[in-house]
Amino acid sequence: MYETNYHRASSVEEAVRLLAGAEDGKFLGGGQTLIPTMKQRLASPSDLVDLGGIAAMKGISDEGGAIRIGAGTPHYDVATSDIVRNRIPGLASLAAGIGDPAVRHMGTIGGSIANNDPAADYPSALMALGATVVTSKRELAAEDFFQGMFDTALDEDEIVTAVIFPVPEKSAYAKYPNPASRYAMAGVFVAKTGGMVRVAATGAGQNGVFRIAEMESALAANWSPSAVAGVTVDADELLSDIHGSAEYRANLVTVMAKRAVAAAG
Amino acid sequence: MGVEGIGARALRKEDKRFITGKGKYTDDMVLPRMTYAAFVRTPHAHAKVTNIDASAALDMPGVEAVLTGHELVADGIGNLICGWMIHSKDGSPMNMGAWRALESETVRFAGQAVAVVIADTQAQARDAADQVVVDYEELPVVVSTTDALAGGAPQLHPEAPGNLIYDWDIGDEAATNAALSSAAHITRLEIDNNRLVPNPMEPRAALADYDAAEEHYTLYTTSQNPHVARLVLSAFYNVAPEHKLRVIAPDVGGGFGSKIFIYPEEIVALWASKRVGRPVKWVSDRTEAFLTDAHGRDHKTVAELATDANGKITGFRVQTVANLGAYMSLFSSSVPTYLYATLLSGQYDIPAIHANVKAVYTNTTPVDAYRGAGRPEATFVVERIMETAARELGLSPAEFRRRNFIRSFPHQTPVIMCYDAGDYDSSLDAALKAIDYDGFPVRKAEAASRGKLRGMGLSCYIEACGIAPSAAVGSLGAGVGLWESAEVRVNPVGTIEVLTGSHSHGQGHETTFAQLVSERFGVDTNAVAIVHGDTDKVQFGMGTYGSRSGAVGMSAIVKALDKVEAKAKKIAAHLMEASEADIQIEGGELKVAGTDKKLTFTEVALAAYTAHNLPEGMEPGLKEGAFYDPTNFTFPAGTYACEVEVDPDTGKTRIVKFVAADDFGKIINPMIVEGQVHGGLTQGIGQALLENAVYDEAGQLLAASYMDYAMPRADDVPSYELYTTETACPGNPLGMKGCGEAGAIGSPPAVINAITDAIQNNNLAMPATAERVWRASRGVMAQAAE
Amino acid sequence: MTQVAMTLNGKKVSANVEDRTLLVHYIREAQGLTGTHVGCDTSQCGACVVHVNGRAVKSCTMLAVQAAGAEVMTVEGLANGPELHPVQAAFREHHGLQCGFCTPGMIMTAVDMIRRHNGVLDEDTIRHELEGNICRCTGYHNIVKAIKAAADQMVAMRTAAE
């Protein structure tokens, strides 16, 4: 890791100000991706502005029709929150399967979505649940927030402060992990919210998370695993690497969709 | 603790320091004025080095020096060596290319060291290493064994035309060809043995300290064999004469073969410590470990098994190409030859065997011994083809094996080995019973009702351990003898120190070896200390690899204990005015048989040192040393049975049950032996299902971190069921055979045989990743659905 | 350079380190506690697991400055004087270690696992929860046994105390 200057912010405003004062600064969430990247010398920010001390960015609240999760909330807290478990069980189970226990204690929802790793789990939940991303500047629909592999609508000096999830009638997530990294090779989140079905897949797409319209319409007509069993996504759009070809990932997307629907009940 | 002798499940004496965080590994050592080394490594797999510009790096904060191969050569540091000479079948010696610890002319694998930066802190060294500018002129690259031998392939070393290191054979070619041409049936298999990265959890490290006044070096390093390291560093690399070089291998965090070898980094650390006049520490990171620790396996084989009309094997022909990487590592040449082809008879009575092995250079990390070393590759060939032949012949795989088992001993195979003892039916029976082989069809049907595919696979392995005797291995090309030494020092207060040339890096020698002493003298294991891993303390030793510490290392201790016992009895007889023949050692006491006269071991020890009243002419003291050279290899063998369930939707394999029935001969500590088997099995299962050191065509290792190299985790493997059968090894005083590698040797074919049984498709490469299994099972599922 | 102070195994400590210093290097080099190990570069092997404010974290994936002011516990802080923590004792009793290198991280992970599950653990859960810890020696068999035994024992002790 190259040398860097560390700053700890206690408010969103202070964080933005600290970053503005840095030559080539970066916000630090839970650090579970950024720090390994810096260790590999693949990133070398002059300054790190730690968001971990911002109390206002932590916590989970039930706002009636929606659940608000502070961007600084670690995966472990999402996974074990009674609110999340009762109201969006698919999201709780997704959070419980990110990384490993130690990573879940540090990694945050805000950090995960701001990085938008194509193999990260959360983006699929945001897309399938029709979540709203709250930032230091604005509110964005998940659809508009994710813009492709490692790319989001965030400006350099913009901080994700919270994510608001509408409460669905049904939700579940199924993933097939990469045998080495344990990231998703294919993860599918299915949700039915206000009668509307959304299906989003992560880990498999060349451009990050994507929705599967054909599965959505099939499930809207018939919410059952068999409804998606015959739906396959186009392998040409999928990732191919030493762990799985695009064709295999296409198969996994269908299988995980079936399993997610079954788990959602 | 008390007296815990042979056979006791004694808890480990060494554990306390590890569970409390007090272990002392090389990276834990700190010396005053210590500097850190960071290596500049080529990103290219094959290139000419045209210029190295260190000027920017030298200006960085904290930098002491930037050193390259030019200085290394100027200082007379020798090339790395391969210590086992193999001759090709035409009698010519193997073709070995030069390997320098720092390469300044032509780099031949991605990650090879070109320069080293020495700086005050590790971070400064790494920062500066990034600033060393190396200009390369890229050369064409070859990575696969097949491509390496093809006409027009890029050439690695001028010394090895066609990239061929040797073209070696063993066995009777004419007899084997005759057997094949008259066979009732021939089973033919093409088999790849996937390349693996050993991955002990402690990365390699070295801390070198040069004392200018004494012209003496001390090297703390992650070694399985510190004396061999000292010998090689001294005799071949010209770092220092042996008496001016102390090598200490303190707590070492696993080895699995990869820490046998002497690598460029240790040589450079020693040399640099003299150059900069300060201690130099180097600690590998995991990426460096992937790129530079010697890899394992990487064979391509065609095997043909001839059988007669009765299902008896009549001949076996094997052709293998072994990828040794870009350079010949220390024992690399022996692995695909004498450690591989000599085991191709398996547990079977095969009248004719012929094997041809070609070893080739490629632009990849050097390959050498990794847990099992040659024997897993042999077992995979033998046990895959046995299973395949049984299926082709319509025989039960268990029955086909039984029909061909060796049942009389000693048994001379056609490939050098003479098996001394064994009972292969016993271990097969034990495994079949434990896995309920006969009840399998019911379980298979039950799984099918849930949409899952069940399969059963067997592997009846044999291996050769305790590599020896020295004269025999010498005649086969080994550059060293493969004996072991030990010294037993009884202190005046009766406590005992055992100095051993074996090295423990997880094997629990501090406990097992103490149990042997406890058994012999009836003393508390706490009164026994095992000293190892320091060339200043232990006179010489060959170290730990090849499952040799029990069969060879402990045999040396037995010999030394015999001498101590004899002297103690003489002293006791003299003191108690009895006949030496009447003295018995029991419960820590030396007794005169048939009387109540006795002396404690402590009293005898003290008498030896006070020397007030010793038998006439006897020297004072109670200390004896011994060297033990085995008379034969040992032959652990057993049967592994694996039951898998495949999810046809994803191709994911779950091991439902894994049974191991091993014959390790005499066992000192069953708890430790079981632990060795658990670990070996998991490495073998890792090879079968997960691990693959795969390169792209440009020679980049694609699986160079745990993000891409699938290490077995706790949820990838089951809990195991272990059984042991016992035929004592007649070749050593304790009857031990060795247990360190069996799990890794025997398990891969059991897993692959089970999966291919489940999916009813024998065409499945290792590792059997989920995608490969999914692809191989698709046609089968479609058929079943029709 | 920044003065970083924290409570380490119950003792207040402080050291002046570069901002890029990882917590594991702070513990090992600045504080001389070498029980916490580094086994990989990609936050996967778990040899470096320590507890920060009561939760298991990978100390190779956290800057020392991030832990400023925190309560940090390493394997050296687990035993109560000469009395081993039940998880340490179980690792020895069940031969849950061989070379010992992954062991401190395994033990710290196990203590955290038992706490989070209130001691109620079955084999599948233990294996799944060990996803972030790699051992190359034991094949996990005896690690799983040791954790199960320690968890059961801690539940029994709690029940007896009630």
Automatic annotation (TrEMBL), chain A:
Coiled-coil segments on the chain, per record: none
Domain FAD-binding PCMH-type: 1-170
Protein name per its UniProtKB record: FAD binding domain-containing protein
InterPro entries: CO_DH_flav_C, CO_DH_flav_C_dom_sf, Diverse_Substr_Oxidored, FAD-bd_PCMH, FAD-bd_PCMH-like_sf, FAD-bd_PCMH_sub1, FAD-bd_PCMH_sub2, Mopterin_DH_FAD-bd
Pfam families reported in the protein's UniProt record: FAD_binding_5
Domain of life the protein comes from: Bacteria
SUPFAM superfamilies, alphabetized: CO dehydrogenase flavoprotein C-terminal domain-like, FAD-binding/transporter-associated domain-like
Keywords: FAD, Flavoprotein, Oxidoreductase
TrEMBL record, chain B:
Keywords in alphabetical order: Molybdenum, Oxidoreductase
UniProt entry tagged with the keyword Signal: no
One Pfam family matching this protein: MoCoBD_2
Gene3D superfamilies in the cross-refs: Aldehyde oxidase/xanthine dehydrogenase, a/b hammerhead, Aldehyde oxidase/xanthine dehydrogenase, molybdopterin binding domain
Oxidoreductase among keywords: yes
Residue ranges occupied by any Aldehyde oxidase/xanthine dehydrogenase a/b hammerhead domain in the UniProt entry: 20-140
Residue ranges crossing the lipid bilayer per the database entry: none
SUPFAM superfamilies per the UniProt record, alphabetical: CO dehydrogenase molybdoprotein N-domain-like (SSF54665), Molybdenum cofactor-binding domain (SSF56003)
Top-level taxon: Bacteria
Signal peptide start and end residues: none
Record-given protein name: Xanthine dehydrogenase family protein molybdopterin-binding subunit
UniProtKB/TrEMBL annotation, chain C:
Superkingdom to which the source organism belongs: Bacteria
One Pfam family hit: Fer2_2
Domain (2Fe-2S ferredoxin-type) ranges: 2-78
SUPFAM superfamilies, sorted: 2Fe-2S ferredoxin-like (SSF54292), CO dehydrogenase ISP C-domain like (SSF47741)
Swiss-Prot/TrEMBL keywords: 2Fe-2S, Iron, Iron-sulfur, Metal-binding, Oxidoreductase
Protein name per Swiss-Prot or TrEMBL: (2Fe-2S)-binding protein
